Amino acid sequence: MRVATWNVNSVKQRVPRLLPWLDERRPDVVCLQELKLADAAFDDLLGEELARRGYEAAVHGQTQWNGVAILSRVGLEDVVKGLADGPGFPDQEARAVAATCGGVRVHSVYVPNGREVDSDHYRYKLEWLKALRDVVAAGPEDVMVCGDVNIAPADADVYEPGAFEGHTHVTAAERGALGEFHALGLRDVVRDRWPTERIFTYWDYRAAMFQQNLGMRIDLILASGSVAARAKAAWVDRQARKSAGSKAAASKDGAPKVAGPSDHAPVFVDLDEAPDGDIGPVVPPPSAPRSGKSVRAPR
DNA sequence: ATGGCAGGAGCATCCTGA
């Protein structure tokens, strides 16, 4: 089962990239963030194209800002929009949606930005993370939290730690809130797979930050131990962050403007089948051991 | 310290992002 998460920064703007990306990468489950449109508009925009590709969609959108979704072609059950007892700013925003896909409880999340340290919005961010933690803690063991967490887990996850001193995304309180998910047993599957690599998932549009690889790793796939143990591969799809064509080609008279990228890249994890056949009817041969770990150990 | 770039609302420019 291939799971991806992508902050698309307006799904309306990203359609010319999203559909070819689905066809090329063929993820089974996709968590999207920053849809920036309402549920009905999402359905009008993509409903038919997604159905043609075999995806069901759980959408929790709103006009203008935020908005999250889960696309799945391995089942989409028990959809929950928003966070139970979650805080608002001042009203609840469309920042979380959950569904059970292929036997795994999947959460697509867009964590509040925080804006300025110790601001109202920063406190809202920390409260929101606590509410998400409580929802995950109360849920099933096989769980994934995927999305834009707006926290760089460690100094190695920002291009220049000194540039972020006193800013959000790197404070001890934010990292502590992220640590609560690890305390529940969740793993950061990309960092587990690449312990010492310099990996970013977000690059500011300005000042050619992507071309210089000056970014941050703030889009994460967190998975319970039971799910993380099935991870065969985990990576960032940098290709999706690249500009499509040369400036010369894009600026030709009358030529349609080439669709630009989101400022975030997608993150992927490939999971082996569940040992007990959660994602399909798997009947072991009579002599096969019924308990214990999968024979197909992750490489 | 500020701007750089991009998107949405909506029609001038402001808010948000991180």
TrEMBL record:
Keywords: Hydrolase, Magnesium, Metal-binding. It comes from Saccharothrix lopnurensis. Its cofactor is Mn(2+); Mg(2+). GO terms for molecular function: double-stranded DNA 3'-5' DNA exonuclease activity. Residues 4-264 form the Endonuclease/exonuclease/phosphatase domain. The keyword NAD does not apply. This is Exodeoxyribonuclease III. InterPro entries: AP_endonuc_1, AP_endonuclease_F1_BS, AP_endonuclease_F1_CS, Endo/exonu/phosph_ase_sf, Endo/exonuclease/phosphatase, ExoIII-like. PANTHER family: EXODEOXYRIBONUCLEASE III. Its EC number is 3.1.11.2. It comes from the Bacteria. Transmembrane segments: none annotated.
